[in-house]
Amino acid sequence: MMKMGVHTLATIAILALASSLTYASDPSQLQDFCVAINDPPLFVNGKFCKDPMLATPDDFFFPGLNIPRSTSKFTWIKCHSIRRY
């Protein structure tokens, strides 16, 4: 009987720890974007973000991702370089 109590307590402790990790995520992923402004008057450690109210769908669109590239290299990976600012 004591062994079952220890297993139950251990199970509850593991579930409590696992469920506490789920709250460590960002509550709103929709706010996690920054459309860079290419010509700010001051440049300090990166680029400034465009006002989210002025962001358009074209800021997030790149027409070349559907074009297949050669994967005959050793790593079988081909990356697209995207610069849209």
Automatic annotation (TrEMBL):
This is Cupin type-1 domain-containing protein. Keywords: Signal. PANTHER family: GERMIN-LIKE PROTEIN SUBFAMILY 3 MEMBER 3. Residues 1-24 form the signal peptide. It comes from Nyssa sinensis. InterPro entries: RmlC-like_jellyroll (IPR014710).
